[in-house]
Amino acid sequence: MRTRYAGQALPLLALMLPMLTLFVVVVIELANLWLDIARLEDALQQATRSAVQQVEYAVLARNGQALRGNRSCQAVTIKAPGQCAAIVQVAHQFLVANLQAARPVGTDPAALAATTRWTVLPQGGSCAGITVSTPLLCAELQLSLRGLFGLGEVHPRIRAADTIDRLSQP
Predict the structure, then answer these.
(1) Sign of the four-CA dihedral 99, 103, 104, 106
(2) Does any domain span residue 72?
(3) Domain region containing 46
(4) Is residue 168 assigned to a domain?
(5) Contact 158, 41 (CB under 8 A)
(6) Can you tell me the distance from the alpha carbon of 63 to that of 28, in angstroms, rounded to the nearest whole number?
């Protein structure tokens, strides 16, 4: 039989405590990064959803569907919106408001929104994994996120796309 001495578990605890602490810190870091990415995805999706509903009312009165401005643009930004300034400006404003509510760690909402690339497809098309025949607005955001403890940096590419709600026939 072995003899037990007082304090035998103390060296084991001293060895395990740093590993357990590191594990908890990594879990917190990953959970925080995952939450930031989820908030950014939601902010971008809601911005495309809100902006794509900005329709051309003259076309709507004729029972048709068209985006405001009704121009096609690929990968434009707020700094260089091309012919899609009307819809891109609205989408940018929605995104800035959504990002201010999301508050991702260590990012400026206005600067982040300015880097978003918008694609406007007034006749429908394909982007961000969605193919439709109705007007489509797509957005792509590439950014760098650093966690709370700075253990690493991630570079997610976040995409969102939405189309005008279908008109129901009377």
Answers:
(1) positive
(2) yes
(3) 9-163
(4) no
(5) yes
(6) 52
Which residue type, as a one-letter code, is found at position 75? Answer: A
Structure tokens, 55: 């329709």
Amino acid at 169: Q
Distances (CA, A) of 126 to 1, 163, 165: 74, 11, 16
pLDDT in tens, 145-165: 887 787 778 899 999 998 877
CA 28, 29, 31, 35 torsion: positive or negative? Answer: positive
Pair 135, 123: CB distance under 8 Å:
yes
- Specify if 2 maps to a domain: no
The string of pLDDT tens digits covering residues 68-90 is 666 677 778 888 888 888 888 88
User: Is the whole model's pTM more than 0.85, yes or no?
Assistant: no
Here the tokens at position 131 are: 């193919």
DSSP element (H, E) containing 85: helix 85-102
